[in-house]
Design goal:
This protein has six helices and four strands. The chain is of the alpha+beta class. Helix 2 packs across helix 3.
Length: about 160
C-alpha cells in the first residue's frame, strides 16, 4: 500500500530532487531531525515508487554540440494497436529523449536530440518517416534553451 505524502516527505523529495547525492545526515540537519527517521522515510519513498531512480544530469554541450528538435507526429489512423506499435518502435530510438501522447492537432510530441541538422534529417527520413501509419511530421528547432529541468513542482 502506498502511503500518502506528508510535509516532511515533500521536503525530503524536494531536497533529493535538487541534489540526489544529498545524504540522509545532511537532510536530517536541514529538517532538524535525526538521521534514522530520514533514512527510513527515503527507503519508504523508494519502495513505494515516489523515487523511481537517481540520475546524473549531463551538460550535453560540454560532451558534444547538439541540437534539440520537437517533432510533432500524426498517425494516419489512431487505432489503439497502431498507437501502441508507434510507441514501442519510438522507444528504441536513442535520439528520442522524451515522447508524449498529446491531444489536439497531433498525436505525439517527440523531444529529439541529435548532433546537427543533417543528423536530424537522417533521423526524420530514415527512422520516423519509415514507421508504419505515419501521417505527418512537423518539426520545431530549439534556438536557445532557456530552462530545462526534471523537477516536479512540489508544493
Amino acid at each position: 500500500m502506498i502511503s500518502p505524502l506528508d510535509a516532511i516527505d515533500r521536503k525530503i523529495l524536494k531536497i533529493l530532487e535538487s541534489d540526489a547525492k544529498t545524504v540522509a545526515k545532511t537532510i536530517a540537519e536541514q529538517l532538524n531531525m535525526t538521521k534514522t527517521p530520514v533514512y527510513e522515510r527515503i527507503r519508504r519513498l523508494e519502495q513505494e515508487g515516489y523515487i523511481r531512480k537517481y540520475v546524473a544530469l549531463i551538460d550535453k554541450e560540454k560532451v558534444e554540440p547538439s541540437i534539440t528538435v520537437f517533432s510533432f507526429v500524426s498517425l494516419e489512423a489512431q487505432k489503439g494497436s497502431m498507437m501502441d506499435a508507434f510507441l514501442e518502435l519510438v522507444r528504441e530510438f536513442p535520439e528520442v529523449v522524451a515522447c508524449f501522447v498529446v491531444g489536439g492537432e497531433f498525436d505525439f510530441l517527440l523531444k529529439v536530440v541529435v548532433k546537427d541538422l543533417d543528423a536530424y534529417y537522417d533521423f526524420a527520413k530514415g527512422k520516423i518517416a519509415n514507421l508504419p501509419n505515419i501521417g505527418a511530421v512537423k518539426s520545431a528547432f530549439v534556438l536557445k534553451e532557456v530552462k530545462d529541468n526534471n523537477r516536479f513542482p512540489l508544493l
